[in-house]
Write a structure and sequence with these properties.
This protein has two domains: about 5-95; about 110-355, Endonuclease/exonuclease/phosphatase (Deoxyribonuclease I, Chain A). The protein starts with 8 loop residues before the first helix and ends in a 10-residue tail after the last helix. The strands form two sheets. The chain has a six-stranded mixed sheet with strand order 3-4-2-1-11-10, with no helix packed on it. The longest helix has 27 residues, at about 355-380. With about 400 residues, it is of the alpha+beta class. It is about 35% helix and about 15% strand. It has helices at about 10-30, 40, 50-65, 75-95, 130-140, 150-160, 235-250, 270-275, 340-345, 355-380; strands at about 115-120, 145-150, 165-170, 180-185, 185-195, 200-210, 215-220, 255-260, 305-310, 310-320, 330-335. The protein is globular, with a radius of gyration of 23 Å. It has ten helices and eleven strands.
Length: about 400
């Protein structure tokens, strides 16, 4: 490192700033490698693309400041470490770009009765642009719609959808975890379940395609994110996703899991979920389609997801227009093509014994954390959970 005492003050400050950013970028890259669930560790799963941007700027700054020519190879070593961090971050991101083969193939089916379209929309409970959200949903004209963070006010705003989507399953709540489910297609069953948190519902339904023969199992999820105001760890979020994954693993039927997962596709938990459930991510090979944060262009990542079984191919997938929320809605149109199921299964990531053991352990930890929180609430009945976004 340079002898800061011999440099002009501005040069010293610039070296110090670039060095500080270099250390921050390396720490942000290394922390997610820890399998810890603390929110301040898991939060670095999200901004991988933004971390790459910081690392590249720091590398350019280091080269401009002459770190590669410093004696002792300290500067060169730091530049190589930064380059390695960039390569690793890109390794995690590249699968969610058109640079790789699509995990879920493109639709080849023309029969409209074997198609299914859906929209996932996080409305942001405190957003009052209900008419805009309704307009976007009506224009998308999806067969299935799930809106989350929906309270009674939002139910009244979206109730006109019941004219075209008469099959419903609603759980409006004022704690930012309410959900509304509208379907144009017939439902065999539709249940609202509380898998872990007693205030976080999930949707479990069987939907019949327009062909009148095919039934599809649908799960709609919106677990709590790892954040100080929501959950101090990612334990219960991970457990809820893996609970559904383990249930799917025991079946062999057309299945769709969608929702605001409060997790990114490239996280260890999302990848573990795909291996355990045997589902696939339509984003792989197509693009990031970042849905959050809708109001901050440089701070976006994909939080709203659709995972599908190998029975399906993708006819269309896109991000819908801004509706006043911090999330963009996401739309996907799928075709039911079971004749290509075996071929598509070759693209699935298979779980091994360690994966199943890890999933079981995470689920157990999720239930234990919920029991601890319930005991703490019982011991402090005067304290109430804060309403958060």
């Amino acid at each position: 490192m340079p002898d800061f005492d011999s440099l002009p003050l501005w040069h010293t400050l610039l070296h110090g700033l670039v060095l500080l950013l270099a250390v921050a970028g390396l720490v942000a890259t290394l922390l997610p490698l820890l399998r810890q669930t603390a929110w301040w560790i898991r939060v670095f799963d999200f901004p991988r693309l933004q971390i790459v941007g910081v690392l590249l700027v720091v590398m350019l700054g280091g080269v401009a400041l002459g770190w590669h020519a410093l004696p002792g190879y300290y500067g060169l070593g730091l530049l190589l470490a930064l380059a390695a961090a960039v390569v690793y971050q890109l390794f995690r991101i590249v699968p969610y770009t058109p640079l790789v083969k699509k995990q879920v193939g493109d639709s080849t089916l023309k029969d409209g009765k074997r198609h299914l379209s859906l929209v996932m929309m996080n409305v942001l409970q405190f957003n009052k642009q209900g008419s805009k959200a309704l307009q976007v949903l009506q224009q998308a004209d999806a067969d299935i719609i799930m809106a989350v963070e929906t309270d009674q006010w939002w139910y009244e705003q979206l109730k006109p959808l019941e004219e075209t989507h008469p099959h419903t399953c609603h759980e409006p709540l004022d704690n930012t975890y309410g959900l509304l489910f509208f379907s144009r297609l017939k439902l065999d069953s539709c249940d609202i379940k509380y898998l872990l948190d007693d205030d976080v519902p999930s949707l479990h339904a069987r939907v019949q395609l327009a062909d009148g023969r095919t039934w599809v199992q649908v799960y709609g999820l919106h677990p709590k994110p790892p954040a100080p105001a929501e959950s101090k760890t990612s334990t219960k979020r991970d457990a809820e996703l893996l609970l559904v994954g383990k249930a799917i693993d025991k079946k062999d039927e057309p299945t769709i899991v969608f929702g605001d997962m409060n997790d990114v596709a490239w996280s260890h938990t999302s990848e573990l979920f795909r291996r355990v459930s045997g589902l696939m991510d339509p984003r792989v090979g197509r693009g990031l389609l970042p849905t959050f944060h809708a109001e901050h262009y440089l701070l976006r990542w994909p939080l709203d997801h659709v995972f599908v079984s190998a029975h399906f191919k993708v006819d269309d997938m896109e991000r819908l227009p801004y509706v006043g929320s911090d999330h963009f809605p996401i739309y996907i149109k799928l075709s039911y093509e079971p004749h290509d199921k075996e071929e598509q299964e070759e693209n699935c990531e298979e779980a091994d014994a360690d994966d199943h053991a890890e999933a079981t352990e995470k689920i157990q930890e999720g239930f234990e954390e919920e029991e601890e929180e319930e005991a703490e609430e019982a011991a402090n009945p005067g304290e109430k959970k804060e309403l958060t976004t």
